[in-house]
Amino acid sequence: MAQTNLNIRIDEDLKNEFSEFCDNVGMTMTTAFTLFARKAVREQKIPFEITADPFYSPANMDRLKRAAAEMDAGLGTAHELIEDDGDD
Description:
The chain has helices spanning 12-25, 29-43, 58-72. It has 88 residues and is mainly α. It is elongated. The model has no long low-confidence stretch (mean pLDDT 88).
């Protein structure tokens, strides 16, 4: 089977953490990406669940818009921010 190179851009810290993970489980990053690609092609889907942050769900966005509209109409209550000085 012919081999080819694949170049990807990734955050340097993530790359280093992933490289360390691969070392810890006894594989190279190339092996890990190849496993991912084979499974994705075989199953015709991303081989793990991808979820969005629930903060950005349509229901929460609607709630935030209503709350903002209430504040703009003078119907809400504003609270002062409390600064965290870092002392525990």
